[in-house]
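$ ./design --mode recover --in tokens.txt
reading tokens...
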């Protein structure tokens, strides 16, 4: 399907903006069924208002996870995991974990 640039009106600021052919192709590839309702500036302002870039409420950066020391149940390597290990439950280093998931 071929696309052509078209002018849309922003629902927030009522200014016209161009919905380019390449943007339309991108929307179609993501199976979006509606044209954007806001201009790029209003979309960016709304994204900031809602808490950043979709990465949480801290300006676009994820909060660093607290890591806990552990010993891999398979190879015995000291490792760090993003959860607190429990007694009686095996913990794996990333290499051994990826092998067990296959």
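writing sequence...
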């Amino acid at each position: 399907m071929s696309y052509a640039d078209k002018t849309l009106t922003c629902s927030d600021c009522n200014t016209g903006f161009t919905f380019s052919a390449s943007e339309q192709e991108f929307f179609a590839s993501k199976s979006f069924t509606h044209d954007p309702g806001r201009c790029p500036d209003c979309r960016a302002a709304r994204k900031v208002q809602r808490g950043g870039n979709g990465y949480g409420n801290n300006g676009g950066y994820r909060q660093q996870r607290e890591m806990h020391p552990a010993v891999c149940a398979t190879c015995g390597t000291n490792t760090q995991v993003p959860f607190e290990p429990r007694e009686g439950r095996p913990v794996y280093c990333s290499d051994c974990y990826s092998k067990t998931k296959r």
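exit 0
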